Amino acid sequence: MSTKGCDSLRNINSSRADWKVKARVIRQWRGSTNTGIVFKSYNILLLDAKNCRMHVFIPAAIADKMSSIIEEGKIYLIKNFTVKDFTEKDNYRVVHMDKQISFTTETRVKELDDSEIFIPTNNFDLFQFSDLKSQATQDVYLTDVIGIIKSKEEISRIPNKQVKVKFVITDGSKNVNVTFWRSFAEEFEQAMSKELQQPVIIIIASARVTQYKVKEKKLGPNNNLNQTRLEDPNFSNSNLGRIKKEVTTFNIDQILNLSKDYNQEEVICKGTIKTVEEKTDWKRYICTACYRQTHTKDGLQYCSARLTTLHLRFHITTVVADNTGELKVVLKDREIRNLIHKYVEEVDSEDDSFPEAVRSIQGMQCSFQLFVTANNVEEKSSKFMATKIIKGFNTEEDVAEQEQTLETMENLGSQEWTCG
After folding, report:
1. For the chain, where do the domains classified as CATH 2.40.50.140 start and end?
2. Sign of torsion, CA 84 87 92 94?
């Protein structure tokens, strides 16, 4: 079935209520009060064919009707609903959007067959562990992370107190503590009691990051968390014990002349984005399971390892300069979004022209964290990959001195409109 006549989730707004979208329900959940009383109203998360996600609030008056129709994982044609613009007071949003959908008594839902339209089965906006410190300073958006379960404590079931389970996840170089609460802790404990192939990899979706003044990082989930155990043959057990050098700041001339001791390490430099190379491949399809670049076959995009969800991501080459020289820096999706605060889909045009929003980063003074490869230290390649970028020259070393904790939405209060 064609999407002609239907609206994109990204384009809907609060101006009318006769919208029509085709989308997959990738998550559904109910919020609760601080005392554990579950709301009758509930929430779903939609994903459309353009990889746009949107949170939907279903009020109590129609919750029973909709819950009998809507099933997680299926695709629906949804008509006649309102759109609410978020305000500055609307925090803990599940996705990076400035609006959400609200169903009404006029809303109509019809199930579609998967063969009628291609919509991925899931979608995440994964943050690196090194980004969690900045996430802990804001309460507007919730956070998605992925990591290997390194260790787990026994579940705590103390009478008259909240049930919880604590465990540690790692990305191969950093450890993060995680806490699951109440029913979610029970579900997690049950899942972990099964015989699972090791290592166990978990995706934690829509979690809140908080921090305490200790020397570890800690996470805890939202009750609409979506956990997935994945097998990654590329993750070596040796990565778990890898010790990294302290990240050091160098000027560009020093970076171009690093010794072989810095192979596979990260360094910081401060410079101005002198030029942006306006190439036609400024956006690329990336496999969201293994993050490899994809290839085209018979007009379709495929991952070299598996057939899975594919997303368009930024891939921009820049020339960065300081008073000692210049080098090329590749900025990928998260780094570009940190500078322009937009996704690929928001700047993409029908004529596929180079986006003005990306061009606008020319002249910006930034601090770059660069990953050093063998080509850089052995072949003296002047092209580096940025793993982090911050506007301005006041860069802090990314060494975690505060603990970050992801809390369940069950503990975030009882606002029914919220994303959990």
Report:
1. 9-116, 129-241, 248-391
2. positive
